[in-house]
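Now for one record.
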Amino acid sequence: MAAGRLRQAAFHLGQALFHDPGVVDCYTALGEVAEAAGSSGAARELFKGDGTSVFPGNAAAIIALMAAEGQVADAVELLGSLVGVHPEKPWAAAPWFGEQQIPPVSVGIAVSAIWGAVDNPAPPETVDALAPWLALARKAAADPAAGADVLCALSALARRLGAHEEAIAWCGAAEQAEKAAGRVTQQTLIMLGYAHQDAGQPERAIEVWERAVALPPKNADLLLDLVDLTHDQGDFAQSLSWAERAVAADRKGVKPRAALLAARYRAGGKGSDADRLAELVDLALAHPEVPYLRTCVSRASEGAAWLQAVPPPTEAIARAFGHLAGTESDGGRVTDVSSRATSLEAPTPTTLFHTRFPGSTIAVPDPSEPDPRIPAATDFGPPLWTYDGTRATASVPPPAPEAVDLLHRVAAGIWADPLTAYDRAAAFSKLDAADLLGLLAHMPAPRDAPWVTVQRERPLYWERLAQVWVCLGILHHRPEELWQRSARRALLLRLLFGPDDWTVDAAAFALCVAAWHDPGHRTEIADAVARRYRHAARAVGRRPTALHDPLALVVLICPGVDAGTVALARKNLDREGPHWKDPRRWALPKWSRRRDR
């Protein structure tokens, strides 16, 4: 300024305001720039830049100059737009802000630009930055001139900042004002419902939105809100009813269609469940720009076997593992174990048991037919496990330490839905086939403290889950190869048709996910899964089989499996009992997508 380079001075002042909009000296210097320029109008020109865009700090300077000229209402409206771009900045810390009474309509315009840009709920730092705006909203809400639209906008900001009682009260006042005028609008009731919902009052929100639905116009988005809220309340029948109405209101919309498919799947229909699920997944993959579709996939997957919860180990040796591991955790020592099993169990848990307790011996009788040691087919490579009598041995060497570390990073929880799992499993693409197979055959013990704790209640569950993660990772192995001749296809089919083991149904599930991602391969994958299931089903009623139930559950979600195989799977599962029908008890911490509201 001393050298007369006012534009350069304006540049530095804009940078300072962006760094900290609350520094009082910045506004003092701004007055000096205006005085040197001859007027506030001339000073504003210094901050406009090239005329195509304005730096946020420069915009704050222009707005402050307007306020100094007495255009405070206009300044508040413009500052709201600036806050909408950078809500984490304390723009309202400017000394001119909040000094005068602002017309409610101007506050409503400003606040409307802010609440749409703020997360719900807002993070603590944003709540602090927007505290002056909440104070301004309170002044505006107390003004008799505040109309219903303004009160609803103020409510939207308040609920994001945690002022739930005021948010409800302001929308309630808006409804009363509209009643007095002779007509309550749908929009006011929608905003009142959101205020109740964010305050943790879902029943009140549903009641208000039911009144809103009865008002014009037809509103598919409102119906979807009711779908979501009733689903979250566990009222799946009502959620399905609202989804049907949403489709009727918007027959071409992908969101109502996805909500209906998820609601029907969740409601538990039979016969075409896998088809509904496949159509839902197809919609989500075809429209990645619509996050709500992935929410619907997660909703359909919630608590469902394989879609979210991997079936837990059911082998007796897994329970024995948990008992002995618990003994050691309590300070005891397990030096040797000698026991007799009633039947041959899967090689993965058996090997894990012998690895943890190397002095153990378990006498196992020769299995009845069909022999679980014999691969269903060897067309795609040698089996992962070979047998010497009843003792299984891995046919591949252990993985590299780097592969083990990667597994622990990826397999930190269960997934919200298979699409989320597929995305996360892409981290395994850096591993070669030897390490992928090595992880499956030489599964490490869990490292993370929560999983170590889980071992007491669900012995070997992490190892079971981790094998599924690895099989999903195989889907990303050499992705440039065409599926039909790809190494990933050969690896998964090699596992699928191997001896009875956890890796069989893990591979079947991974193939099911592959079928969702590429409809062109569904027929081949469905045929392979059905063939392996029918081979496993021969054991039902003839010998103990831990493979049947989880593999049957894959059949029920795999698209394209023939009706006869699906019927057989349902029949055998019903014979086995109801335990498989409530996998919610398997639920553990999961990787999930943030749900945008």
User: Anything to note?
Assistant: Residues 316-591 form one domain.
